[in-house]
């Protein structure tokens, strides 16, 4: 039965629509893919694996680590004031400038 329905669908919709559409279909000049780089190159008929395209993950050793990777949704929300540029200046730069002013390196 699927053979007959496939033939009927091909005749009704046209021969080019008999295949289901996927994201890799395109013209013969526009090869559509999934956006991933090619991991294999062919040079002189031989396959060469491109090792710099293979992702390497750096994972720390977590033996003896007490915290768990799950955060419960029952954690209370933390509300704080928005950070302004003045707050960042007061924390990062102001102590150093005050120390230089007190030592006499900077004058008004």
Automatic annotation (TrEMBL):
GO terms under cellular component: mitochondrial large ribosomal subunit
Gene Ontology terms for molecular function: structural constituent of ribosome
Highest taxon of the lineage: Eukaryota
Protein's UniProt keywords contain Transit peptide: yes
Subcellular location: Mitochondrion
Species this chain originates from: Branchiostoma floridae (Florida lancelet)
Keywords (A to Z) from UniProt: Mitochondrion, Ribonucleoprotein, Ribosomal protein, Transit peptide
Underlying gene: LOC118414035
Protein name (database record): 39S ribosomal protein L41, mitochondrial-like
Ribonucleoprotein found in the keyword field: yes
Family membership: Belongs to the mitochondrion-specific ribosomal protein mL41 family.
InterPro entries: Ribosomal_mL41
Pfam families: MRP-L27
Main location: mitochondrion
């Amino acid at each position: 039965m699927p053979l007959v329905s496939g033939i009927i669908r091909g005749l009704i919709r046209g021969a080019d629509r008999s295949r289901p559409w996927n994201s890799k279909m395109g013209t013969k000049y526009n090869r559509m893919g999934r956006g991933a780089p090619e991991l294999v190159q062919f040079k002189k008929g031989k396959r060469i694996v491109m090792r710099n395209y293979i992702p390497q993950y750096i994972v720390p050793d977590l033996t003896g680590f007490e915290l768990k990777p799950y955060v419960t949704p029952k954690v209370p929300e933390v509300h704080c004031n928005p950070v302004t540029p003045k707050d960042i200046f007061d924390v990062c730069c102001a102590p150093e400038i005050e120390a230089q002013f007190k030592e006499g390196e900077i004058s008004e």
